[in-house]
Amino acid sequence: MKVSGIKYLANQGIENIWKNKMMAFATFCVLLISLLLVGCSALFYINMNSMILGLGNQNEIAVYLYPDTPQERVGEINAQLLELENVDTVVYNSKDEAYERMQNQISQGKEIFNYIDDHEFMPDGFSVTVINNDQIENTTQVICQIAEVEVAKSSPQVAQFLRELRRVVTLIAGAVIVALAVVSMIMISNTTKASVFARREEIQIMKYVGATNTFIRTPFFVEGFVTGFFAGSGAFLITWAVYRSVYNILLNQGTLMSAFGVTSVIPFADIRLIVGASYLLVGGLVGALGSVISTRRHLNV
Q1: Are 244 and 35 in contact (CB under 8 A)?
Q2: Which residue among 27, 149, 245, 248 is buried most deeply as judged by most CB within 10 Å?
Q3: Residue 61 CB coordination number (10 Å)
Q4: What is the pTM of this model?
């Protein structure tokens, strides 16, 4: 097909949107709602998973050294911990900090500390966070094998709970997304079929006068693609506005929300290109293919 022919058919597809603006608007609305349902569900799952991982990063390994460990050895152990495969961060807790923390914890018996001249009996220690919370128990065992480490404590039960929670969230979110995708495809299919059915006589006349299937389908393809593209653009703008508003509300909650891992919510700026491209691509292709497929039964005359 010549370039002039392709240009003509593309123009016909765009003109059809205006000629059949009510059906085009109905298709646009259905595509918009469908994209929002699936897109927002996917974003909710991604952020829930990120929040669970964020909670896992707060699960620390408490490392305590023997009280008589030389100070130069403390620095060596710090370096050893950082070299471990699954270790993310290491924070040194000195004897002074441990002594002060103990004083704060025993607020009702502070007079006891009047009889303690020094606090050399307190151990130096470290707070260690891990990269993969599922491997925290193995990492704890490795740390226990380091010389001068008296004890290393972690909460593998917390890691197991978060692992199970992430599995459940994945299953539920996956089922919801698949269900919404199926419902959305049915809605889009019915809408595009209704749009094409309204012009079935026009298709049949073109077929009778010798128009090829490609010649008939191309304007519908362009019409569906343009409608889907604008539906994707609308879905992206709505998602952007709602996401930023919710993100700012959560971010302003401060310390309370950090305890629930909300600080791990992904900023929209980090994912806007992927979200935008997905909305536009899926919207355009679904609209185009839906229109083309719906013309099939009316081409057999």
Answers
A1: no
A2: 27
A3: 23
A4: 0.68
Over 172-239, what HEC string results? Answer: HHHHHHHHHHHHHHHHHHHHHHHHHHCCHHHHHHHHHCCCCHHHHHHHHHHHHHHHHHHHHHHHHHHH
Question: Which range (50-54, 106-110, 158-162) has the least confidence?
Answer: 106-110
Q: How many CB atoms lie within 10 A of CB 147?
A: 11
- Range in 32-41, 110-119, 216-225, 245-254 with the lowest mean pLDDT: 110-119
Instruction: Determine which of 59-63, 174-178, 215-219, 259-263 has the lowest per-residue pLDDT on average.
Output: 259-263
pLDDT confidence tier of residue 109, bands split at 50, 70 and 90:
very low
